[in-house]
Amino acid sequence: MRLIRLWRMSARDVRLLLFAMTHTDRPAWLWPAVLALGFYALEPFNFALPLLGVVDDLVVLPLVLHLLLKLLPETIRSGFRSIA
Fold it and tell me: How many separate domains does the chain show?
């Protein structure tokens, strides 16, 4: 049940991330952070140890994404809430 809630939270977080990436007031650190998160998600370690890769993708990535979005300025988050 917790995993389902985590994935629902992640779907909203991905939409917020896409909104933040196109927002004019996005912070300068957002692009490098998203690229690092994407690289981490696609790292070859996931292929070497598949079970550990699944746990990583199901738990760690959504939590890091949520933390990353908590660091966004309030103007971006409130702008997303107004359209969502």
Answer: 1
